[in-house]
């Protein structure tokens, strides 16, 4: 991959070419329509090359979950600016608003749609469930760190950072789920409410 | 069905037997593993009886979405008690807490898991998306009505009922998504935070 960005430039190797092909096949055929043949066709590889990399569909899908979560985390990864209020707003804005031009991903909604489809597999699949539990916790920790920094710097109220961050992660998962599965634009209705929650709960000078 | 409760007693007819069989097959094989043959086997019906009721898998799944949403709405339907604070707490508790004994559903988590799996289909399927958009709006309206009643009775702060209810629906969808796809119990961490949000935002006497 180019500069560590999964969807930019030419794929580095067959593994990555297969991951990108899986992403395209998922967009085209849906989860239930994914097949090794279709993915191999999309990647312009033979099925035998495919089986050189993966034991089968189950193995592929675990790798693909990892790939989507890496992309998800890359999108929502924050470099701390040293200003927790700004960090918090950037973090929330990345999820709620259109992407700033600096984020090189072809289609945010497609990535979030795939995230929802992969996440739904975790209802049945314990391996997926384990992985999502782990990444949810990392994600909440990142959020809690911003809150703790804000408290330490005297900018945020002394809330329970773990609880508030877990709550925010749930709100954002709810936003992502609804956004990916509705015809209208429910986020625009709640955009102010989410800002108000953050202001009322966290910001001392509001 | 018995007393209008989809999972209680003997199924009234083949249509309902097929819906229940789809629910069981979904629990057993996952969404990707659903097939007409497996559903017919579960329902103890021939494939030809199946095709008497449904044109095919697509048609079946739209009916099944309806079935799960009906069950979902039955579970979360509220009879107004005339006390909006109580209604609100009951509504939230139905989603966050264990079922009270009066709710006759064999397994709340199985229903919510199926809801997540069906909802993920809406990422790709416009018919599913249309239906979820519609039922989300009905659900939010029900919630907004409780808030409006509370404002009218002078118990709740004069918030924008539509926005707060849409926000709460997102929170609850986030809770349902995480709960169905994690190993641990994230709801217990945020239970207090959700109560606090409601108290701080809505209740005047808190």
Overall description:
Chains A, B: GO terms for molecular function: DNA binding. Chains A, B: InterPro entries: BetI_C, Homeodomain-like_sf, HTH_TetR, Tet_transcr_reg_TetR-rel_C_sf. The structure is a homodimer of 206-residue chains. Chain A has two domains: 1-54, Homeodomain-like (Arc Repressor Mutant, subunit A), CATH 1.10.10.60; 61-201, Tetracycline Repressor, domain 2 (Orthogonal Bundle), CATH 1.10.357. Chain A has nine helices and no strands. The first copy, chain A, has helices spanning 14-29, 36-43, 47-53, 57-76, 84-96, 108-121, 126-152, 161-181, 186-201. The mean pLDDT of chain A is 85. Chains A and B meet through helix 6, helix 7, helix 8 and helix 9 of A and helix 6, helix 7, helix 8 and helix 9 of B.
């Amino acid at each position: 991959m180019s500069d560590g960005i999964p969807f930019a430039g030419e794929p580095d190797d067959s593994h990555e070419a297969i991951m990108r092909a899986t992403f395209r096949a998922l967009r085209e055929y849906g989860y239930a329509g994914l097949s090794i043949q279709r993915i191999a066709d999309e990647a312009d590889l033979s099925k035998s090359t495919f089986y050189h990399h993966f034991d089968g569909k189950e193995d592929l899908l675990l790798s693909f979950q990892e790939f989507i979560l890496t992309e998800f985390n890359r999108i929502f990864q924050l470099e701390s600016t040293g200003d927790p209020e700004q960090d918090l707003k950037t973090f929330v804005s990345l999820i709620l608003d259109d992407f700033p031009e600096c984020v090189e991903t072809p289609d945010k909604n497609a990535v979030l749609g795939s995230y929802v489809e992969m996440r739904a597999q975790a209802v049945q699949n314990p391996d997926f469930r384990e992985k999502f539990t782990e990444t949810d916790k990392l994600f909440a920790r990142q959020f809690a760190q911003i809150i703790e920094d804000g408290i330490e710097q005297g900018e945020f109220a002394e809330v329970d950072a773990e609880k508030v961050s877990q709550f925010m992660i749930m709100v954002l998962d709810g936003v992502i789920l609804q956004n990916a599965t509705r015809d209208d634009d429910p986020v625009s209705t709640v955009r102010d409410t989410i800002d108000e929650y953050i202001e009322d709960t966290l910001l001392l000078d509001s």
